[in-house]
Amino acid sequence: MHQTTYHRPSSVDEAASLFAKGSDAKYLAGGHTLIPVMKQRLASPSDVIDLGKIKELIGVEATGDGIVVKSATTHYDVASSETVRKAIPALAYLASLIGDPAVRHRGTIGGSLANNDPAADYPAAVLALGAIVKTNKRSISADDFFKGLFSTALEDGEIITAVSFPVQAKAGYAKFNHPASRFALTGVFVAKTPAGDVRVAATGASQSGVMRVGAIEAALKANWSAGAIDAVKISADGLLNDIHGTADYRANLVKVMAQRAVQAAG
Amino acid sequence: MSTVKLTVNGKAVSADVEDRTLLVHLLRDHLNLTGTHVGCDTSQCGACVVHIDGRAVKSCTVLAGQAAGSSVTTIEGIAKGDELHPMQAAFRDNHGLQCGYCTPGMIMSAIDIVHRHSGQLDEETVRQELEGNICRCTGYHNIVKAVLDAAGRMKVAQAAE
């Protein structure tokens, strides 16, 4: 790892001003992506600005029609939060599948979203649930937030402060995980809104990161059941094709995981 | 360079380290607590697991500065004098180790598992919960037996306190 300067601000404003002063600063939340990448010397930030101890960024709150998960809340705290379990059990379940217990004690929702790894779990929940990503500057809808592989709508220096999840009528997640890394070989999150609309998001499948799956959404809107997905055809075009699985294999996984997610959602 | 102050195994410590220093290197190289091991250095194997403020974490993926102000417990800090921690005793009695390289991390993870499940554990849960700790000798069988054994012992020890 190259030399760097570590900072621990106590507020979001202080963090943003430290970032602006650094020549090539990076934010650190749980550190479970940035530190490995720094060890590989794929990143060598001049300054590392730790958001993990900023009190205003930690915790879960129930709102009238949803929940707000603040950005430096760890996967473990989301998975074990009674508020999350009660309002959106599928979200707590998703958090409980990330990495391993020690990783879940450090990794955060904000870090996962800002990184937007194409095989990360949280992007699927944020996109399917129609969440709002809140930053120190604005609110960004899930549909506008994800911009492809490791790319988001976040501007340089912008900090995710919270994610606001609406409670949907039904929600479920199913993941076929890579047995070594526990990333999603493919994971699918399904949600049915109170108005009857359906949103389905797949992670780990597309070369462009998390994606909506329109064909499955249409099938589930007509008939919310695992069987309704049987006849859906998923194209392998643009899907990831690597040593872990071919594009055709992933296309099939999108269907199978969607069916399991519907069964989990009930 | 920064001065990092934290509590390790109940004692206040202070060390002048480069900002890029990992917690595991602070423990091993600066505090001579070499019980915590570096296995893969990629957050996969779990040989470096310690507790920060009571939670099991991989100390190869935490900067020393991130642990400043926290209370860290390592494998050296769990026995009471000559009396092994119930998890250590259970690993010995159940032959839960062979080469011993993964053992410190296994034991620190296992104590965290027992705490999080309030001692209510079955074999399947233990196997799932140990997914972040890799052992290349034992085939895990005796490790799982040891954790289940220790869960019972820790309950008894807690009841006695």
Describe the fold and architecture:
The complex is a heterodimer of chains A (266) and B (161). Chain A has 2 domains: 5-50, Uridine Diphospho-n-acetylenolpyruvylglucosamine Reductase, domain 2 (2-Layer Sandwich); 58-266, Uridine Diphospho-n-acetylenolpyruvylglucosamine Reductase, domain 3 (2-Layer Sandwich), CATH 3.30.465.10. In chain A, strand 9 and strand 10 form a beta hairpin. With 266 residues, chain A is of the alpha+beta class. In chain A, the strands form 3 sheets. In chain A, strands 4-5-8-6-7 form a 5-stranded antiparallel beta sheet. Chain A has a 4-stranded antiparallel beta sheet with strand order 9-10-11-12, sandwiched between helices. In chain A, strands 1-3-2 form a 3-stranded parallel beta sheet, with helices on one face. Chain A has helices at 12-21, 34-39, 75-79, 82-87, 89-96, 101-104, 109-115, 122-128, 142-145, 214-222, 247-265; strands at residues 5-7, 25-28, 47-50, 60-62, 66-70, 132-135, 139-141, 160-166, 170-177, 184-192, 198-203, 211-212. Chain B has 161 residues and is an alpha+beta fold. Chain B has 5 helices and 5 strands; from the N terminus they run E-E-H-E-E-E-H-H-H-H. In chain B, helix 2 (86-93) runs antiparallel to helix 5 (141-160) and helix 3 crosses helix 5. Classes of the chains: A alpha+beta (266), B alpha+beta (161). Chains A and B meet through helix 2 and helix 6 of A and strand 4 and helix 3 of B.
How are the elements arranged and paired?
The complex is a heterodimer of chains A (266) and B (161).
Chain A: E1 5-7, H1 12-21, E2 25-28, H2 34-39, E3 47-50, E4 60-62, E5 66-70, H3 75-79, H4 82-87, H5 89-96, H6 101-104, H7 109-115, H8 122-128, E6 132-135, E7 139-141, H9 142-145, E8 160-166, E9 170-177, E10 184-192, E11 198-203, E12 211-212, H10 214-222, H11 247-265
Parallel strand pairs in A: 1-3, 2-3
Antiparallel strand pairs in A: 4-5, 5-8, 6-7, 6-8, 9-10, 10-11, 11-12
Chain B: E1 2-8, E2 11-17, H1 23-30, E3 49-52, E4 55-58, E5 71-73, H2 86-93, H3 103-116, H4 123-129, H5 141-160
Helix pairs in contact in B: 2-5, 3-5
